[in-house]
Amino acid sequence: MNSAAEIVGTVITSKDINMFEFIIEKSAINKVKKGEFITTKNTNGEILLSKITKIVSTNSLIGGKLEDANELTKIRAIMYSKEVLENSSEFLASAKVLGVINDENGKIESNIYPINVPQDVYLAKDDLLKRIFSHGSVDVGYLKVRPSIKVKLNAKELCSRHFAILAMTGAGKSNTVAVLVQELFERAKGKMNIVIIDPHGEYVKMRNTHILPAKLNPILIPEEHLAKLLSIGENSSVQKSFLIYAASTVKYEVKISKKQISGIEYLRKIEEKLIEWADIIANSNGGRITIDYYDGTRWRRKTVKKDEEMSINRVIEKLRWFINKNKNILGSNEGMFDVRNDKINVLPLQKIEDEEAITIVGEFLKRALKERIKAVHGEEVEIKAFEKQTLLIIEEAHIFAAKNLKDRSGYWISRIAKEGRKFGVGLGLVSQRPKELNPTVLSQMNTKIILKIVEPTDQKYILESSENVGEDLLQDLPQLSTGEAIIVGSSLPLPVLVKIKKYDGVLGGEDGFKNLNI
Fold it and tell me: How confident is the model over 84-104, as a mean pLDDT?
């Protein structure tokens, strides 16, 4: 069956067609470890690839009960020499069948036949594992159990069917992103846009980067969302109404004037309109007070109350506060779409508050998807870069795709997760808080690269939102070392434990405590 392969044990029992146990040969004990790949046969003569899931040791001279072991060791030591006791030890391994190896195409197919007992167990040969795990083009690292075997992901599957990188803080998430991006860039340079949404400025120092200036154009923001940015809550319905009236009116007046105005000018005109209305109320002599506004379809006249002047003035205060806080990012956002396919595009957001960042990201995702829809339908695009397929990688994705998906960014992430493949828009979500991600969006990420995660609720959440992540894989997550990851999904034939290689460039966002000596 496997003439050049090494025999490492003998099958002694098979509980079902997907599980078996074998005694490890003493001469092979140093070569057999948890997670190692082995081969056997089923009753149809097909070669099975399996993975060792557990190893236990027993000694018939000492006894099997743990509570008796120490006492029995002392007693047996009187009767047997140390050498005799050691030679009587046996190692029992449990293995999970991964599937039948198809010799014609190297693919792994499901097993439907029982496993012969007894039979020899072989160590899987390197060339077999290379056929399975090194067939892709995106080199991310090597097998933890076989450092000589590189793990290469299928780039097309990775990009077209989306991926997620999930980890706790300090597990190697940023390094994994950098390795993946650099590999994809080297293979897709000039063929595909790569954009990283970077809330903490971790990737601005990478090689071959092109920094996109984050800008917020309030003219493009729906009035309802502008109210949210101004911290006008649902309970402040009067304030919200006046803001919407003023914004709609200003937009119409700008439209008919055919003038181009900046984002700050737009907000200042809203302020002027609100001041105009406040003055009308303040200067009234007790009669009927009215203001004129445009509601998006026609002009209307509204009767207002004397005490509503206070609500208008509160909106003016909030508007001024918003302008002052965001004066460096308000304006035309056209430069933000200066995407280049010969560079790694980074949109840094580290100096921007979450609400504003969410709005900026929502607008970017919206434009990217709409432009790609035009390109696929043969229509002329406004942003030439989006004539090519685009991969969007979103760091701190739990901020932008929270469970309720109420924010603008969440809506467009959901759209891309569901429709992006049809229009050549790939999505990569990166998060250290998996349980805060929207479950539907996470379930659409077909490849998952999962680094160390200790929090049980995070583990459970990943399991519930992933078809190909099993309980056996989750059990390994808390024990992973920094830079180790379990990769599952369509970019690899089988789930596997990988040591992610080290990115050979510079990253930001390093440990802020690294120079603290205490």
Answer: 84
For residue range 338-348, what is the model confidence (pLDDT) as tens digits? 999 999 999 99
Let me know whether 351 and 484 are in one domain.
yes
**419 occurs within a structural domain:** yes
Q: How sure is the predictor about 418, in pLDDT bands with cuts at 50, 70 and 90?
A: very high
Q: What single DSSP character describes residue 73?
A: H
Number of H helices, E strands in the chain: 15, 20
Distance (Å, rounded) from C-alpha 339 to C-alpha 390? 10
Are 111 and 250 found together in one domain? no
**Structure-block tokens of residue 55:** 């190893």
pLDDT tens digits along 490-505: 999 999 999 999 999 9
3-class DSSP state of 20: strand
Q: Would you say 323 and 173 are in contact if contact means Cβ atoms under 8 Å apart?
A: no
**Long-range CB pairs of 133-138, under 8 A, 24+ apart, other chains included:** 133/492, 133/493, 133/494, 133/496, 135/106, 135/493, 136/491, 136/492, 137/183, 137/187, 138/180, 138/183, 138/184, 138/187, 138/491
DSSP-assigned states of every residue in 213-265: PP-B-GGGS-HHHHHHHTT--TT-HHHHHHHHHHHHHHHHHHHHHT----HHH
Quickly count: other Cβ atoms within 10 Å of residue 420's Cβ: 26
Residue 409: give the domain boundaries.
Answer: 150-215+333-500
In this structure, the answer to whether residues 390 and 484 fall within a common structural domain is yes
Q: By CB neighbour count within 10 A (0-12 exposed, 13-18 middle, 19+ buried), where does 340 fall?
A: middle
Per the CB < 8 A criterion, the answer to whether 363 and 383 are in contact is no
Residue 408 pLDDT: 79
Burial class (CB in 10 A: 0-12, 13-18, 19+), 50: buried
d(CA 442, CA 165): 10
Residue 134 lies in a domain: no
Quote the percentage of the chain above a pLDDT of 70: 91
Return the number of other C-beta atoms located less than 10 Å from residue 268's C-beta.
Answer: 16
C-beta of residue 100 within 8 angstroms of C-beta of residue 109:
yes
The per-residue DSSP string of 107-134 comes to -EE---S-B-SS-EEEEPPHHHHHHHHS
Q: What's the pLDDT at 89? A: 77
Predicted pLDDT at 188: 92
**Structural domain tally of the chain?**
3
Q: Are residues 439 and 308 in the same domain?
A: no
Where residue 1 falls among pLDDT bands split at 50, 70, 90? Answer: very low
Could you tell me the two tokens for 159?
């990009």
Could you tell me the CA-to-CA distances from 514 to 172, 178, 452, 481, 505 in Å, in that order? 15, 20, 20, 18, 18
